[in-house]
């Protein structure tokens, strides 16, 4: 009798698994099938979600199954795993706001879990992957930087820290590029003071980015246009000291030489302070 019951249970499990797998062969589940998911175990529903992610182009369908695991078996280990997979599925579907929501719920519910680092990384990616072209608003870039910094600082030994550092640097450079774009706009139109303010931000706040050499060249140009030769020469000196092989330095050197000037430190401006800090090893 016991053997008969055991056989019946095994047969039922096989049938359930086959039904779920079979749905993947013929497409999405019908509404009736979705309503009857409580007939299946948490593991079976979870694995159907994995199947959708791996074998179909419908990440939204996968998210449905993972959310059903959480709804039907809220206190199970499978529910925890399903929640992080919801975040991943939403991200795959480019539903970035939903991805952030699921990732944050995981962090709030399971802050000490081994997958917390991945949840924070997914949350950061949901901002990072939305960073627009340089010419648009950079609010998401700031949010990406904050979220990436949390991965780096809170999970420094995780497998996601290195990727977060690389993406942080790229996002940081993105912000500097925005300042450069605005500065070039002002410079082209002869608004030299406004242009200088933008290039100064790059030199003082984004000095480790790839935008710094050009910012120093544009400062040289703007100061020369205003007749402020001390500042122009000092900008050229900083550029020459750190980026002598850069074409931006060659351009700045030519402009200075054309005015009978040299790329040397002159006067006592904010650029002079930057040069002194750089020589003492506190800049770049």
TrEMBL record:
Major subcellular location class: membrane
Subcellular locations according to the entry: Cell outer membrane
Residues in the signal sequence: 1-21
Gene Ontology biological process: Gram-negative-bacterium-type cell outer membrane assembly; protein insertion into membrane
Keyword annotations of the record: Cell outer membrane, Lipoprotein, Membrane, Palmitate, Signal
Entry annotated with the keyword Repeat: no
CC per GO annotation: cell outer membrane
Record domain Outer membrane lipoprotein BamD-like: where: 41-235
Coiled-coil features, chain-numbered ranges: none
Family: Belongs to the BamD family.
This protein's name: Outer membrane protein assembly factor BamD
Species whose genome carries this gene: Paracoccus siganidrum
Source organism phylogeny: Bacteria, Pseudomonadati, Pseudomonadota, Alphaproteobacteria, Rhodobacterales
Primary gene name: bamD
